[in-house]
Amino acid sequence: MMEFKLPDVGEGMHEGEIIQWLIKEGDAVKQDQPIVEVQTDKVNAELTAPAAGVVKKIFFSVGDIVEVGTTIFTIQEENDVSVPDTGISEEENQVGQSGDVNVNVNAQHITTKHQAVRALATPFVRQMAREMKIDIEKVKGSGPAGRITESDLKQFKENDSFSREKAKQHDDKTGQEMAPIMGNEREERIPLKGIRKKIAEHMVKSVSTIPHVTHVDELEMDRLKEFKNQLKEYSDDKDIKLTFLPFFVKAIVIALKEFKTLNASIDERTNEIILKNYYHIGIATNTNEGLIVPVIKHADQKTIFQLADEIRQLAAQAREGKLSIDQITGSTFTISNVGPIGGMHATPIINYPEAAILALHKMEHRMVVRDLEGVIRLMMNMSLSFDHRLIDGVTAVQFTNKIKELLENPIRLVVEMR
């Protein structure tokens, strides 16, 4: 009998939540067949059978939180399965071992069953189906090989709602009344679990450990916008959508090399400051699962176009729930770009154990004073939250001044790239 223990599929993962069992007790499974879907810190993982055999015992239910190293199911391996003497010849007993029919010999009789074909869908789509209260096995997929997409779920929901409405109208016509709703005061209770719980724990850890200070500044974006537009012809040739974010990544990396404590952390166990000479930039990304921070590794070694393409790919993978553990860990500094949804300034919470986080806010034309005259400029605010144990206010201001200097004069950005 083989015991399957919950593995550490991440870096320092302590527990996982059972999201969905893909088999049941008594099922025959093949090696590497998906068995269970587990939600860890910010990613969903499908765990597979370590060997072929029969699932003998499942120890946890959907929604249970399981610690790493705990046995979650057992498998009786194929070479360990003892078949009682049934009086049926070996040749007869081979029936069903090919194709999609399983033969179970038990108490001198034979039962056959067809294995259900599991719906093809990503963990993100499966989670979306659960939130929409849709049985994903009833949905017809329109993607490659019949894979179920977000659009399929929405269409299924619309069709289901239409059917329910028609049924309600029929009931009304036949004199059946719906139960009246009493009062306007309602509340809904949602379990704090999964990714949202992990985010909550991470935020509490950050705020309770790091003394946050936030510095707010503004910068002119006119020259950078013009510079970006000049590069559009080249980005179009490479089929790359060029945004402002890659320029910020480059400017931040250059500034981090000059102000090293912004790219540092504190080892509380040894009471040491760790200055990092590598530049892994986290990009906070909003998804249906919550805030995910995919990481651009070695951002200082990549071009503007390479950064733009990687940011796009990581954002898409984040929204689809396809990021690996390596893609969401190891950041040394984080950017939170809230500009597309608005806002003037904020107090972003540092991505522990990093030393700082920079939030970018909306761009808008404003009247500003230049050389004692009022002029209109394309302006953007940025908010830098920093760890006051490591960074003084003067250093924080110097850091944002460096970013401003580079972005307001993009030729400086190009000159200082290395």
Automatic annotation (TrEMBL):
GO terms for molecular function: acetyltransferase activity; lipoic acid binding. Its EC number is 2.3.1.-. Keywords: Acyltransferase, Lipoyl, Pyruvate, Transferase. Gene3D superfamilies: 2.40.50.100, Chloramphenicol acetyltransferase-like domain, E3-binding domain. Residues 1-76 form the Lipoyl-binding domain. Belongs to the 2-oxoacid dehydrogenase family. This is Dihydrolipoamide acetyltransferase component of pyruvate dehydrogenase complex. The keyword Metal-binding does not apply. InterPro entries: 2-oxoA_DH_lipoyl-BS (IPR003016), 2-oxoacid_DH_actylTfrase (IPR001078), 2-oxoacid_DH_E2_comp (IPR050743), Biotin_lipoyl (IPR000089), CAT-like_dom_sf (IPR023213), E3-bd_dom_sf (IPR036625), PSBD (IPR004167), Single_hybrid_motif (IPR011053). Residues 120-157 form the Peripheral subunit-binding (PSBD) domain. Pfam families: 2-oxoacid_dh, Biotin_lipoyl, E3_binding. Its cofactor is (R)-lipoate. One of its GO terms (cellular component) is cytoplasm. The keyword Transmembrane helix does not apply.
